[in-house]
UniProtKB/TrEMBL annotation:
Statement: the UniProt record of this protein carries the keyword Transferase: yes
InterPro entries: P-loop_NTPase
Gene3D superfamilies hit by this protein: P-loop containing nucleotide triphosphate hydrolases
The protein's name in its UniProt record: Sulfotransferase family protein
Keywords recorded for this protein, A-Z: Transferase
Species of provenance: Xanthomarina spongicola
Top-level taxon of the source organism: Bacteria
One annotated GO molecular function: transferase activity
Length: 255
């Protein structure tokens, strides 16, 4: 979920990037003030400062309240002062190919159920576009995604890492990046509590074999994400035909 920390910082949870581990760690160390909106609220959604915990009402009425709140802001009746406040926001990403593998493993475990509905404000979910694309064959699933939404993971990640994001860590270095973001936020927490925290609901161990041609195609389609989040170096960028080095997102945490 989008999480508001007691010091005002906000964590944006991109699906399948270790967010449940982060949320569990924050909760166990009593650092959470409250949850904000949807569990996976992206950057734009998170700007709408609605605290669901302050309104203990049913889901249907809560959706209506959200619509009313948005309408009042649009009409200028309710003044939006969120632009005057710029909280520290952080999130985590992972290698796009690894994201596809993790999502497939997870969906194989839960039976490829749908998440949300596309073009629905009340049933929004960042991965609703993937509904109906499942397959027990990993490469077929990947091809299904390519046909419907080429470069999907880049699109997903970019919706959370717009201008204003302060810290982008990596799932591949989750524990150490979490230590660093806590240090940046000047939050005192025993490093051992972070380093020793077990992985949370890790996907089952399944050997995945990419079709080589499909993998090569996916790397090209996800090139924006590979560049933006520092998953390829200058030489590898040249191998993709880029004659000038493109630096990663300025918020990306680099050692």
């Amino acid at each position: 979920m989008a999480i508001k920390l007691k010091n005002g910082a906000e964590f944006l949870h991109i699906p399948k990037t270790g967010g449940r581990w982060v949320a569990s760690l924050l909760d166990s160390n009593n650092l959470i003030a409250h949850n904000k909106g949807h569990k996976h609220a992206d950057y734009d959604s998170n700007l709408f400062d609605y605290d669901s915990n302050l309104f203990p009402i049913g889901k249907g009425r809560k959706r209506n309240l959200l619509r009313l709140w948005s309408l009042l802001k649009t009409k200028g009746i309710l003044k939006d002062t969120s632009h005057n406040i710029s909280p520290f926001r952080f999130c985590f990403v992972r290698h796009p190919l690894s994201w596809y593998e993790s999502w497939w493993k997870y969906m194989e475990t839960i039976g490829w159920r749908d998440f949300g509905e596309t073009n629905s404000a009340s049933l929004w979910h960042p991965n609703s576009i993937l509904n109906g694309l499942g397959s027990h064959d990993f490469n077929e699933f990947v091809w299904n995604v390519i046909k419907k939404r080429p470069g999907y993971v880049s699109e997903l990640f970019m919706s959370y890492t717009k201008s204003g994001i302060n810290f982008i860590g990596k799932t591949e270095n989750l524990h150490h990046d979490m230590i660093d973001v806590m240090s940046i936020l000047d939050i005192e927490i025993d490093k051992s509590k972070i380093l020793d925290a077990p992985k949370f609901h890790e996907s089952k161990k399944v050997q995945i074999e990419w079709d080589p041609k499909l993998k090569d195609m996916m790397l090209k389609l996800e090139l924006p994400s590979l560049i933006h989040f520092g998953y390829i170096n200058e030489k590898e960028q040249r191998d993709f035909g880029l004659h000038k080095f493109i630096p990663p997102n300025k918020a990306l945490h680099l050692k």
